[in-house]
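Lab notes, practical 5.
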Amino acid sequence: MNSEFVPNTAFKVSLGQTADFDLGGMRVMPARRQVRFREETRTLEPRVMQVLVALAETRPDVLSRDQLALACWGGLNIGDDAINRCIVALRRLARQFEPQPFAIETVARVGYSLREAGAAEPATGKAERELRRRWRLIFGAAAIAGVILLAAGLFAWHPWRSSTISVAVVPASDASETQSIARDLTAKLGMLNSVSEGGLRLIDKPGVRGDLLFQVDSSTDAGMVETNLVLLNDRHEVLWSTTRRRAQANLADLKQQLAYTAGTVLQCAKDALSDRSNGPDRQTLKTYLGACEGYAEISEDVYRDLRAAFARVIEKAPRFEAGWRKLLTADSEIVRDLNFQDAVAESDRAQLKQDIAAARRLYPDIAEAYLGESVLLPARDFAGRMRLADRAVDEAPEKANPLVSRARILVQAGRISQSLDDIKRAVRLDPLSPSMRQELVVGLAAAGRMGDAQQELRKAEALWPGAASLLEARYLIHLRFGDPREAMRLRDSGLVRVSGMPLHGSFLEARANPTPANIEKALRDNRSYFASTPLAIVNLAQALAAFGREDELFAVLLDGRQPYDADDLLEVIYRPAFRNFHQDPRFMRVAARLGLVDYWRSSGNWPDFCFDPDLRYDCKREAARIASAQRS
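Output from the prediction step:
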């Protein structure tokens, strides 16, 4: 879109003034932002519904991207991703129903056309005929503006080139390790095809080259495998490279690491190459992809370096939307980490606010700005954090990060089932992420769904048999929820390294052989650790709950003089071991201390345990009683 184009909001879709209509057997209710197909109802985010209305009212005619921007964004200068994500969301919506009520066809170099699947164009009612007449007038008037826009942007954007980015993986030699890693990388990157909804195409035919090329070269020496991975463009210029070295016995870890890093870098490259008018030049692209590599393997000590790298990218390409997304994410992680350490630097908070404001001047609804605002809120402002997380998911339903952020808030609020739904969607959107798969496996076990957790673990192990991250996931689910002897076997194998393992020994012994002496030793170890590290409440709370010491647990959590880390506690108190803890109405006093009761009452979003038919009290009545006592 031309940056000099003046927005014209007069032509913008007004959902509140658009009559309900039928589309391929699906009832579309724009004012409610809902669609109904037979007995199923879905609620759409506002922008997605606007795009659906625009396409439906001009069907089967082709609607250009400029016309969509005019109708749904009022002519604002938006990036391609904004339209792409709405089209992706609508295609996913259609696939949820059988038969599909509609299909959206991409017309190369022009725009999109909506057609009702398996049916001729339906007769149009009076309200729909009027809307169709209005749209023809609108787009007839906009046609001249579209020609001007096309001419003005022709040299900055090459519309004759496909928005789909193709990629191939080639081995640099016939060495067995090289061939094995190249085959595995090809298979894993192929999982991104469906995620990208046509924006990414993997070429797996020998000799056929694409827009991008991963070149793989491996060598083995003294039991170590060293792999060099290089990303080239269609002119065989190097855009990015990395070298990884692992023991031959840990080849699964090497393959997993390469697949996730390569997938992350590839998605970044696709974002940059697809945004031809605003994307970075080749040298800046190399900086961007290097930072994306670090982003794939992010740890607390590199947030600032990543933030500096993405800031350099934005300096060179100030309208690059994907660069802004990464910059805001790095900003947010810096502040989140400092929040966790209770050492927030006001300069970091100010930097995040400044970057949010700058990004919004270009992209008003960028999801990462809402996530950044959420990080800036007090930890106990559940309503504010949830509202911002919901908005981020609405604005970027095709991205995993907003879903993960919302899932964590849902866990803290006790809405475990909904949090798992978000994590499942995030795994589908980011299928190569080891940490996300581990989070799903452990989350299912923590919700008491051990069978589902093991099923998901088996799926992940089929992708990366023997990978360390999956051994860790197996250990974690058996540590707290499954067979303690299996956890002990994994611990003794030396293949698993997770935080807190020194405390796990006596805990596992007590779970495997729950004699009074073993239980008391486990509790004594956890009490001692808590006494030396008061903020570390998690292990003690879980041990007390696991061995039925609810009275002691209530005494610790309700002692106003005793400091502890509420954020960590909120991650565990809804686990199966805490069921008896929830059964006691004193739990609502703990929830009030954590700031949850006010959120539950004001939002009406009560935690899952409140719907347990065996619960010995009524959550709403107990919460009202506590609120009344606090007021008096």
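Observations recorded by the TA: The longest helix spans residues 126-153. The radius of gyration is 27 Å.
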